[in-house]
Design brief:
The protein has a three-stranded antiparallel beta sheet, with helices on both faces. 47% of the residues lie in helices and 20% in strands. The radius of gyration is 17 Å and the shape is elongated. By secondary structure, it is α+β, with helices and mostly antiparallel strands. α3 packs antiparallel against α5 (86-103).
Length: 120
């Protein structure tokens, strides 16, 4: 809850407007999520809550993010085995390339939402 004049900032990974659910489902399976919201959905919900909102699209950075994350997890796999279970690590290593696969054709969106509640 925001008091009048309050501000909210958050980020999320979302689907691009025309992305079919089936196209992202393989990557989402590990998260237990069926589908993703879109930026327009989030902006609409914020507006319904009486907030003035904006979305800064930073999608271009997702490809780099997932490629680097996959590279680092693979590079540090031995180290990670000391702090997470082998089954979790195996699932992560299996899943990260799927995220790379859905970021390259721009099936996802990522960015920052800023929203504010008007002062009364």
């Amino acid at each position: 809850m925001l008091k009048p004049g309050g501000a909210l900032v958050f980020s999320d990974i979302m689907a691009a407007p025309a992305t079919p659910v089936e196209a992202v489902r393989p990557a989402l399976s590990r998260l237990g999520v069926e589908s993703l919201a879109t930026p327009s959905f989030c902006l609409g919900r914020l507006a319904e809550l009486g907030m003035k909102a904006d979305f800064e699209n930073l999608t271009e950075h997702l490809i780099t993010h997932y490629a680097r994350l996959d590279e680092e997890v693979r590079h540090r796999a031995a180290e990670l085995r000391g702090v997470i279970s082998q089954s979790y690590l195996d699932a992560l290593l299996d899943n990260l390339p799927r995220w790379e696969d859905i970021t390259r054709p721009r099936l996802l969106r990522w960015g920052l939402f800023t929203a504010s509640r008007p002062a009364n």
